[in-house]
Write a structure and sequence with these properties.
Radius of gyration: 15 Å
Family: Belongs to the Gfa family.
Number of helices: 1
CATH class: Mainly Beta
InterPro entries: CENP-V/GFA, Mss4-like_sf
Distance between the termini: 26 Å
Number of strands: 11
Pfam family, one: GFA
Protein name: GFA family protein
Keywords: Lyase, Metal-binding, Zinc
Helix content: under 10%
Oligomer: single chain
CATH topology: Metal Binding Protein, Guanine Nucleotide Exchange Factor, Chain A
Length: about 150
């Protein structure tokens, strides 16, 4: 069994654990992720949501629908981004910056590069880059996903 990953918000009022092994991390350069993160891009770890659990402070977490069907969660005390469960809890999307532990993998891809911040130069890191969202066959298999 993989080691449990732990995460928290800035004020540590919200804490969570992920017992499922991480599948991948994506770096998203879309305008919504830039606004959400307050940075040049958002970084998100994806994993089987059945291994996700709140340890403390779930009542502090609120969600916001940033675009149709796309939910963002945050701590109401400090504003930190928090994980979101999709596909009826089968898919966890964890803001990578909220992790307290090393997930043991590095980013897989840059996405939505066509809308990257004009003041940011994409690094020469060898990762694939997509102008928009990659095709479905690009992604590693996600538990609970159909197809």
């Amino acid at each position: 069994m993989a080691a449990t990953l732990h995460g928290s918000c800035l004020c540590r009022g919200v804490r969570f654990a992920l017992d499922s092994p991480p599948l991948f991390i994506n770096l998203c350069h879309c305008s919504l992720c830039r606004k959400l993160s307050g940075s040049a891009f958002g970084s998100f770890l994806h994993a089987d949501g059945l291994g996700f659990r709140w340890l403390e402070g779930q009542a502090l977490v609120r969600s916001y629908e940033s675009s149709p069907g796309n939910w963002r969660a945050f701590c109401t005390r400090c504003g930190s981004l928090m994980p979101v469960l999709e596909d009826e809890g089968r898919h966890a999307i964890v803001p990578a910056g909220s992790l307290d532990d090393d997930p043991g993998l590095r980013p897989l891809v840059h996405i939505h590069c066509a809308s990257k911040a004009p003041w940011y130069a994409l690094p020469e890191d060898g990762l694939p880059r997509f102008e928009a969202f990659p095709p479905p066959d690009f992604w590693p298999a996600t538990p609970g996903a159909e197809g």
